[in-house]
């Protein structure tokens, strides 16, 4: 169903762009045909990119395909926003054209032309004058408006995508957040978590993406590193080399990982990645918990599988992860999707660390994400549980982030 909706949306978007950027900016002829074939070619590149994702070929087509996806999205959004002002300007130009063509006063009788020849000459002059007015006032105005709208949309879309690429491919922002937990033992006050989610290792990121994230996390000198799902977009065979820098992660009590929905997209499921991460020194919390002992006090750190694993019998099990614990100890839960907080609240969790949303990644998608998840980004309280949602350090699909820069979070607990 998702694939069908996505394909229908892409086809409709391309038809809309053809209507606004080709049909309404050109007349019949060679230029219109060339632009039509060019737009069809971009659609083919986009299809090839998504097909290549399943075939391991996307490394050589992913850049143009995904960039066009972002440009296409913003062209549609900007043109849609311009529809109302465009309609207003078109109505004004039509009204101005009618005023220009309307006679200002009744013509005086003219007696200089005589006979049939004079009448024919007068009629031809009048027809030429009206025809010229229609050509200059009607068609040219529509053409000018279509081209002006296309130019504004094109420049705006390209500028937005260019800015978004510099944000997505640049250094993540370090967000420093302090969270007060009422039940937290005072000896645990000051315990620091380096939280990172949605790294999305893939062919567009390269090993430099992982190395940069590891370097920035190590610079925080955290007590615990929490990787909250969607680490990869592919198999160990494809992307194992990109994960190698994770072996250099530094923290006092270790690095921990929980699955995201993308870990279940691989044909072999998350099992191979769990093993690979174990060899790199990153422990996966698979519906389980560990105790973090700090200055003589204990914090429960739990992790549950993503809801995406439910369909393959590998979903979240809160009872297994949180059952039988000391209710007097504070609990921090790693759960990829914020929506899992409802179940966390029923098990007495104090703080949930999540990702998944990317903060919307490209505005105005943040408004859509808010319809599906209780928190889009940042710290909030849901059903009595504090939830921190990271915008993620990577990107999915287009290497573009607008209004949601990548982040790594230094989260500090306080009593």
UniProtKB/TrEMBL annotation:
Keyword Iron applies: no
Domain Calcineurin-like phosphoesterase: 191-359
Keywords: Hydrolase, Membrane, Metal-binding, Transmembrane, Transmembrane helix
PANTHER family, per the entry: PHOSPHODIESTERASE YAEI, TRANSMEMBRANE PROTEIN WITH METALLOPHOSPHOESTERASE DOMAIN-RELATED
InterPro entries in alphabetical order: Calcineurin-like_PHP, Metallo-depent_PP-like, Metallophosphoesterase_sf
Transmembrane segment boundaries: 6-22, 34-53, 65-93, 144-165
Name of this chain's protein: Metallophosphoesterase
Superkingdom per UniProt: Bacteria
Keyword Protein biosynthesis appears in the UniProt entry: no
Annotated Pfam families: Metallophos
